[in-house]
Amino acid sequence: MELAKYMRGRVTVLALEGELDSATSGEARKRISELVPSDGAALLDLGGMTYMSSAGLRVLLLVYRQVRQLGVPLALARLNPDVAEVMTGTGFIDFFTVVDSVDDGVEALSG
Amino acid sequence: MRKPCVLIVADEAAGTTQLPGLAPALSDGGFDVRTATEDEVLASDEPDGPDGLLVSASLGLQRVAMLARRFAHLPAPPTTIVFPQDDLDALEACVRGGFDYIMPPFLPSLLRSRMSSCWERGQLAGAVEDMAAEASLRAYERDLAIAHEIQSGFLPEKLPAPHGWDVASRFRPARQVAGDFYDGFELVDGRRLGFVVADVCDKGVGAALFMALIRTLLRHTAEHTGTASGSGDDLPPAPGSMNMAEAGASLSPMLSVGAGPLVQAVVATNRYLTRNHLRQGYFATLIFGVLDPASGALLYINGGHNPAVLQRADGSHTLLPPTGPAVGMMLHSSYALGHASLERGDTLLLYTDGVVEARATGGTLFGMERLLTALSGPVKSAETVLSGIDKALRVHVGGAEQSDDITMLALHRSAV
């Protein structure tokens, strides 16, 4: 899995690419948690994700907990249909603000 | 026969005066002798190493160790032996650091015998290290085998089969231990059959530990919740959980008998997990069903799990989709009760995502459509339903490795 970080104003964008499963989730969790900002807002760009297993959902859940504790708003952008289906099925999607594009996410989080 | 090859690395800074006769004595002793500087050895990309590496102790323990490591990746790394060049303290430090040594005077027969015993000791040390590594791997495998055994104890030994019903199951972990589980047990003095299929997120030992916890919480709570009002006197309802009076009101009195244990089990398990284990982030998707074997009435909660399939005797089917989120994700999750009715000849299939996401060698998923096709024929028993799916899975997956746990539970109501 690849992870990139960049700023859009006060919004920290974390772009995830590749597969998030049991094999990659340990490292992904560690790296994402290090990059989550302690203020401003965070946007996870999942447009490059090709596969997410339940281990990946667990990573997202832990990120969600982390931002909740920090009081940092979080949104998810560009969910591919497969990932969206898994997140919908588990009821997971209801906890997140979901947007179609990074621009929409930045706008929603900056408002 | 090939002569054993010895590479001598002297300390250039120490001069060569203190090496009287080492190389000639080794030659006379039957060795093929080469010399090189420390830099040459470290920079060399030659694929082969010598049989013996003779290093000057004057380089100091660290540099000696670095030279020894240069060949450590070889299948048969050379034995490293130090010799004193001008400094006996340096020799002592290297010997204390674990290196074997030779001392002047260097005489061919003495050297030969000394070198061969150093070599044997080196081999022995290597063998001991290999054995230690193997032993630790064996210990790890044994621990996993024990974990596997213990986990089997968290699955039902036998599934209850009420009169007029038959029940079958499959449980195939992708690894030694699994995050999946299934369960089946009697409730309300045998008037109801409780059954569960669940999938704890992620894999391996972590998921297996949470599997044991979640199975225990669900079953224990279900078995110890009263049925009177369905509210479960020992546990106050959680904020956000469904209002039991309301749920009970929408159900006939016959149905609501099983509702209390069902709702309490799921809500209390969710509450326990989110209160005590939130940090660890484990959650489970599950279906918990409570069946009245006499009438075929079914109550269920689907917590974020793959929809169960209710296959009708006439060949049609109904899906039982989620009625709430996965268990253990959020404190205030609410769960609605689903209900259905199994008539004679109907079959209910519960499964985990390892079934629909089983991949063929090319990566194609088994998918819902293939599952429904495998289910569509006339049904003789729960067992034949599962063996039919097993067969379809085998055909689809071919030689590909099983990547996720596969769990299935089928309940079939006899046609007559």
UniProtKB/TrEMBL annotation, chain A:
Q: Which InterPro entries match?
A: Anti-sigma_ant, STAS_dom, STAS_dom_sf
Q: What is this protein called?
A: Anti-sigma factor antagonist
The entry assigns this protein to a family as follows: Belongs to the anti-sigma-factor antagonist family.
Q: Which CDD domains match?
A: STAS_anti-anti-sigma_factors
The residue ranges of the STAS domain are 11-109
What are this entry's molecular-function GO terms? anti-sigma factor antagonist activity
Which PANTHER family does UniProt cross-reference here?
ANTI-SIGMA FACTOR ANTAGONIST, ANTI-SIGMA FACTOR ANTAGONIST TM_1081-RELATED-RELATED
The source's domain of life comes to: Bacteria
